Amino acid sequence: xxxxxxxxxxxxxxxxxxxxxxxxxxxxxxxxxxxxxxxxxxxxxxxxxxxxxxxxxxxxxxxxxxxxxxxxxxxxxxxxxxxxxxxxxxxxxxxxxxxxxxxxxxxxxxxxxxxxxxxxxxxxxxxxxxxxxxxxxxxxxxxxxxxxxxxxxxxxxxxxxxxxxxxxxxxxxxxxxxxxxxxxxxxxxxxxxxxxxxxxxxxxxxxxxxxxxxxxxxxxxxxxxxxxxxxxxxxxxxxxxxxxxxxxxxxxxxxxxxxxxxxxxxxxxxxxxxxxxxxxxxxxxxxxxxxxxxxxxxxxxxxxxx
Length: 306
Prior knowledge:
By secondary structure, this protein is α/β, with parallel strands linked by helices.
């Protein structure tokens, strides 16, 4: 199973904090560094020094790393128009030498929109569907040809569809628990379907639903990576586990139930259960970016066993 590091910088992280974690992830053998795309903290943390833009951050990381995959989990369609988004992601992909992936979602956090003057429309899922069509259409248009699109939400006329990403097509990540629209969009557009923060049985059900959506359009479900996102809290003993849980404001028992928490052996066993449910990739949500020993422990005692 591939393991990727996934952070929430809006909770309080500088660019240097993210760079340190991304470089550690690369050095320790993790497959990627992914970050949320939010402009407002959540909960009682102070959020200092303040929010950072996901794609500006990833552009910097693209130039300061050399192997790991980089991307968002996920970018809300409410933040950016699809044409400029396609340009930004293509440019960051070129800057990275072809290591970028775009997680794209409808968006949900109304408060961050209000805080920074971003419209929060009722038709977010319609925006998502058309943005997926537009970014893939722009990237897939041959050089020298133009791309046009007429939808209910967006219209593009004779776009030169430039620049192109370094990859022939930047992999898209689509996720969520919706029973119909999300599996359909993942089957049509995604390279990675993410079942975020759900239990093993629920994840198995979501994977079955998206596999059926693939078969309905004659796509082999094996061509779609099945992934999970889970909060991480690993320690060598109960005291270390409790210390790490307290640092992120969570309870150990709750984390054991709802995340990847416990000793390395416990976490390996739970990942094995997710693997039996069809999981091929895990995004490990790391909430304490100062605790590099946490990553070192997981790299030494979990990563080689999954």
